[in-house]
Amino acid sequence: MKVGVVVFPGSNCDRDAIHAARLAGAQAEPLWHEDPDLHGADAVILPGGFAYGDYLRAGALARFSPIMGSVREHAERGGLVLGICNGFQVLAEAGLVPGALLRNASLRFEHRWVRLTVTRRDTAFTSAIPPDVTLLMPVAHGEGCYTSPDDKLDALEARGGVLFRYVGPEGNPNGSARDVAGVLSERENVCGLMPHPERASERLLGSDDGLLLLRSLVTSAGQRLAAA
Amino acid sequence: MSTYRFCVSVMPKPGILDPQGRAVEGSLPHLGVDSVHEVRVGRRVELSVDGASEGAARAVVERLADELFANPLIESWSVEAMARPALEAAR
Amino acid sequence: MTVAERPPRPAVAEVMHTPLHRALGLTDHELGVIGGRLGRAPNDLELAMFSVMWSEHCSYKSSRPLLRTLPTSGPGLVAGVGENAGVVSIGDGLAVAFKLESHNHPSAVEPFQGAATGVGGILRDIFTMGARPIAVLDALKFGDPSSARTRRLVSGVVRGVGGYGNCVGVPTVGGELAFHPSYEENPLVNVMAVGLLEERDLTRAAAPGPGNLVVLYGSATGRDGIGGASVLASATFGDADPQKRPTVQIGDPFAGKLLIEASLELIERGLLEGLQDLGAAGITCAVSETADRAGTGIRLELDAVPRRETGMAAFEVMISESQERMLAIVRPDRIDAVVEVCRRWGLPVAVIGRVTDDGDVTVVGADGVELARVPASALTSDAIVYEREGRPPARSRRAPAPGAPELAHDGLPERGMDPGAVLVSLLGDPNLASRAWVTGRYDETVGSDTVCGGAHGAAVVRIKGTAKALVMATDSNPRVGALDPYLGAVSAVAECTRNVVITGARPLGVTDCLNFGDPERAEAFWQLTEAVRGIADACRALELAVTGGNVSLYNESAYGAIVPTTQIGVVGLLDDIGRLVHPVFRAGSDVVALLGESTPGLGGSIYADHAGAVPDDRPPGIDLARESVLQALLLDATRSGLLRSAQDVGGGGLCVALAECCLWGGIGADLQVTVGTAPAVELFGESPSRVVVSVAPTAWDALRSLAAGSGIPLRRLGLIGGDRLRIRLVGEGATGAAEERGAGVADEVDMPLDVLRRAWESGLPRAIGEAG
Q1: How far is CA A45 from the centre of its chain?
Q2: In a domain, C511, yes or no
Q3: Chain A within 8 Å of C441 (Cβ-Cβ)?
Q4: CA distance A17 to B30
Q5: What SS3 state is found at C525?
Q6: What is the least distance, in Å, from the CA of A52 to any CA of chain C?
Q7: In a designed cystine with C478, which of A196, B91, C133, C563 is the match (CB 3.0 to 4.6 A)?
């Protein structure tokens, strides 16, 4: 089962994502943004970083990279896509997940460890996560405040589209509406979240909770492959 | 006493590197555009000021532009008076 | 016609009524020496080149003779002083590159860009050697935290460090933050970067092979940083519009990231003969340094340099400090591959010259007209050097030598002292309090290698695919340096290496950044001389090499000079990450002990700042032989797995060190401390070579024999447990037998951890007005 990690100019968590995807049991390779070929990737990760320096708006320029057409087609075919941090911002700008990410409420870059609840375990991104656990992983961003008009937020929640929320004493690091940390597309095959599961994939580094998310992705993609 | 509305445009000074403008320009080929060049990206601030005259109100804005909105070391600014139709309508 | 043959143009001088060389910052003497180097008078372009290359910042003309006295060789050192960064082998075919650098003056002018370009610059020094940058540490010094100026500087510098480091994806894992009035007009921004490389990828900044191509890649060249030399422009071109002469260098971390990836790819694919980054003095510096190192020359085609602006004069192109540019030496048969890599990463690239065998830097303009020709060595290795004069101040409070008899301390400002209240006050001091307000702005975990950040002592970064980890720290002791610059430097080296050793890591080498005043002032030069002597003595005693560093002089204003500030950076190797020791109390009923013993002297301590120092009190001295034995003992103890925790005793003394261990571990302790001379010295004195350790009760005897064997005193203090920090004072000095005591004096510290935590967490935000 192969995970393709897109590399935009300015992506800087791509190597981390590849390393963590391999820990989760997948074959993982980088996908250069200029090449529209996904090279047989069964699942695609848009990693964290500062694609195009986050200039203009985070993700605004990256969404026009040649590879994004293929990512969109892959998603339309039901393929799995995970956007982490900057990757989430790119997905939002591209309209592949709902909502927008604004500057943090504190107006400052925030790096800290946060705790997430998992609202559903019946998705491709959460199937391997045990019940009643919270996930500990770091955030590192200046523009992670999730925003959407109230009616759209209501609709999102109603269809179970809010997949992760900030909880616990660690709190909401960026002022996101309704403590939203991660969301699902309508077809539930595209997920975007601001925290970094690939940085929480080894106990040595502080937490391996992120590996649960990545294992879910790898297992689900593998099942879809087998079913195909 | 009247209320006047202004907009302040803040741009990188000529000769100063504008990484934003350069990155935006570099991305345009991905949108199939190759006729655009010399892109510079700045900020725009709109504000209403109470003053005895437009000149007095403008003086306040110029001071804010120089001391707060722009970094005079690397940015230049300009002030324009604006009409206030939207706010009038809201009243 | 060569430049030497062409008749000199009427000098700009005649138009301006000021000799051009003086307007460019060169002295009459220097002009004469330049004439000697060239065998003729220099033209305007050559003068501009000399003026930047012979500046203090580029030539180290005041400090070179001193720096030659540093120990610069050691086992495993594969690149050292004189290269862009020091590089040390760590086995498995890997090596570590690291260096400290300053960007003080630009940060005072424009704090965000000054700090950002400071980070960008030191990162380039690392990856130009072939190393992938893996960590940044920032050492920042500011003036009074309540002043508007300081607050503006703190905000801008922190945003600048974070803005660049976060964007390029290098974690900022540690640093130092200190406030002292002497830095009010002259903040210090010293940045350390660490990188990892395969030894076979080690790349040097030399231009070998006459006939090879000289390639410039990265951002286009604009007018950044030209400043002082703009006098040439105004006279020559008549357009003196300040709008056209920006002096602030703007950093673009996005371009910086692309530069890192492109450069490492070029190196890993073996496409380069040499690589140099462009920093101060831009193209002039890069070509002269690389040519000089290889003993070759470089012939530059000026028109080939990609420019960002139109109408740039020759001197502007040659000395521009536009950021994110690299100079590569490329064999002609490899140029196509090099160009392909640069294009793929979106970086402008151009062949701007060739390597020659004549030893000169030759600048050629349109139609092959020679505009300048200067021996490369004259601009670099053979630049002018000064033997400045140093003179100690009339009065000084230097530390007593090891073994000198103790002085009585009748006048200690501690009558009526409540140690608990003093502890709370110290923990809330912005120099000791939690730095979370700053570190929360930095991405500490990008790279997925950070085992622990520098919030609790040294930072630890693991090396994927091995059991190894790198431990890194930066320290300084300017308060002691103000009284005794020699001791300030010695104790900074001792403390920084100690901070690394207590984790179980073996120091690989030392990098230094010397921040001092005007070297033409005898007292300031004496301070610099003393500091260099201190670094040399400490490194020799600890058997470590100085792998490289930086000197920043002229840090003074009309209000005075900064206190002598010797910033030290150390990287250590931990062979087995499983053996890592943290400075954090872990388990109830573990035994707490102090290795080492306190010596008198409160001069230069933070306690003295709070309580008021006795006028003639001196800083506590250090015994380097003892320190060396202590560090060896610690490495033994950590390797044997004896220690559950180890924390260096530094600012705020033993009491603060104990409080830190409790707060960071979330667990209290019940301890007692024997007071010899005076409680203040025992609890808050900052005498060096002391470490607070904790061990499992079953390991206590083993630790005792290890310590006894080394001759380092080991004193049991008590046990971990509870939710309070309790320290009872016992012994002769505790009851004030030697002095009067007022009523209501506590002979103990007995504080709930919550109270200490509140003081520690709020100290910094409150001081800089960011609370709430």
Answers
A1: 7
A2: yes
A3: yes
A4: 26
A5: helix
A6: 6
A7: C563
Beta bridge pairs of residue C693: C593, C646
Q: What is the CATH number of the domain that holds C569?
A: 3.30.1330.10
DSSP A202: B
| Average confidence (pLDDT) over C699-705 | 97
Asked if A111's CB is within 8 angstroms of C168's CB, the reply is no
Beta bridge partners of C691: C595, C648
Supply C165's token pair.
Answer: 């480091």
What is the C-alpha separation between C135 and C195, in angstroms, rounded?
7
For A2-227, the fitting CATH number among 2.60.40.1120, 3.40.50.2300, 3.30.2130.10, 3.40.50.880 is 3.40.50.880
pLDDT tens string C751-760: 999 999 999 9
CA distances from residue A151 to A145, A148, A174 in whole angstroms, order as listed: 18, 8, 21
A204 and C577 in contact by Cβ < 8 A? Answer: yes
The residues facing A5 across adjacent strands are: A30, A45
The DSSP string of C279-313 is: BTBHHHHHHHHHHHHHT-EEEEEGGGS-BSSSS--
**Number of domains comprising chain C:** 3
Whether residue C413 is contained in a domain is answered as no
The sign of the CA dihedral C399, C403, C405, C408 is positive
Q: Which domain holds residue C210?
A: 17-53+205-383
The answer to whether residue C676 is domain-embedded is yes
Whether C246 and C267 map to the same domain: the answer is yes
Q: Which residues pair with C512 in a beta bridge?
A: C549, C568
With CB atoms and an 8 Å threshold, state whether B73 touches C110. Answer: yes
pLDDT given for residue C611 in this prediction? 80
Where among C383, C400, C435 does a domain terminate? C383
Q: Which residue has the higher pLDDT, C463 or C12?
A: C463
Q: Give the DSSP letter string of C27-95.
A: -HHHHHHHHHHHTS---HHHHHHHHHHTSHHHH-TTTHHHHTTS----TTEEE-BTBSSEEEEEETTEE
Mean pLDDT of A145-159: 96
Q: How far apart are CA A13 and CA A17, in angstroms?
A: 6
Q: Looking at the structure, do residues C161 and C220 belong to the same domain, yes or no? A: no
Tell me which of C2-11, C159-168, C489-498, C677-686 is least confident.
Answer: C2-11
Is the model's pLDDT at C670 over the cut of 50?
Answer: yes
* Domain finish residue from C557, C578, C599: C578
CB B63 within 8 A of CB B49: no
Distance (Å, whole) CA C399 – CA C298: 52
Query: Looking at this protein, which amino acid is placed at residue C478?
Result: P
**Each residue of C407-431: pLDDT tens digit?**
444 334 455 578 899 999 999 999 9
User: In this model, does residue A115 exceed pLDDT 70?
Assistant: yes
Question: ipTM of this predicted complex?
Answer: 0.97
Containing B63, the helix (H) or strand (E) segment is helix B54-64
Structural domains counted in chain B: 1
Taking a contact as any Cβ pair under 8 Å apart, which residues of chain B between 32 and 91 contact chain C?
71, 73-74, 76
Question: Where in the sequence numbering do the catalytic residues of C fall?
Answer: 57, 103
Alpha carbon of B81: minimum distance to chain C alpha carbons (Å): 25
- Residue spans of the domains in chain A: they are 2-227
Residues C296-322 have pLDDT tens digits of: 999 999 999 999 999 999 999 999 999
CB pair distance less than 8 Å for C252 and B14: no
Note the pLDDT tens digit of each residue in A37-55: 999 999 999 999 999 999 9
What is the arrangement of strands in the sheet containing C172-179, beginning at the earlier edge strand? C77-79, C86-91, C94-102, C188-198, C132-142, C172-179
Nearest-CA residue of chain C relative to B71?
Answer: C110
Only one residue has tokens 């206190």, namely: C563
Structural domain boundaries enclosing B74 = 2-90
Quick check: is C394 in a domain? no
Give C560's contacts (C-beta < 8 A, 6+ positions apart): C182
